[in-house]
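Agmatinase (Ataeniobius toweri), 289 aa
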Amino acid sequence: MDPETRDPGTYHSPSRILGSIIYRNSIRFGPRQIRVESAMLRAYNSGTRAAPYESLVVADIGDVNVNVYDLKDTCKRIREAYRKILATGCIPLTMGGDHTIAYPILQAVAEKHGPVGLVHVDAHADTSDVVLGEKIGHGTPFRRCVEEGLLDCQRVVQIGLRGSGYSADSYEWSREQGFRVVPVEECWFKSLTPLMSEVRAQMGSGPVYLSFDIDALDPGFAPGTGTPEIAGLTPIQGVEIIRGCRGLNLVGCDLVEVSPPYDPTGNTALTGANLLFEMLCVLPKMKYY
């Protein structure tokens, strides 16, 4: 439904964005498969007793109409679509597509809220300057966001980073900006509930955006993704991170990089659907039994 025809109360928009160049393609089919697997979701969160559909007006308002031939134009289309969505008072929950989408979404979010804090869950920092000669792509969104002043860099945390890199310290640039970097080695064999207590203190009362790349999870749990890296987070830790965002002033969330052809079981998309539901359950004004 067109968001402008709805009551301007809070509702939520999982949107389909097509993938760009990536190690494994077919990311563009992720949102479709997540929608299919979301049929398993019910109305209440048994773990937290959240009742999202009693708390908020929730709607899937469909797909952003992107240009599959022009990534820059696609970013423009996403930015303009989210300006309209945010103008209604919506807190958007977005299904990607690849992580490029975070850049134009955050452009629109920052126009409304000013520089935001960021909880970024990912195997990769996505702070490259150039990828294959291009400034805009799935490996560059958060560098572009910093350059444009979209992020409050003292309120950015990146969790689960790992894998081989192009230099001895792949996360030096992030730390130089003031980001808190939590490599996956700091997450192994432990609950992340204490970490999220520290993150909540870091984020304070300001606006926060949550961006969750499914490749943050170990490929043993989520093989259907574009750039898998071994030794990742568990689904339990993913849920701990999201539930740990309860109480934050969340102004938007995304779940990206599901690639269904690389997981014929559908479990990666099912995990993505459940993580999105967990995000819905920690939004402001949530009712808990």
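The first strand starts at residue 93 and ends at 95. The beta strands are 93-95, 116-121, 151-161, 180-183, 207-213, 249-256. ok done for today
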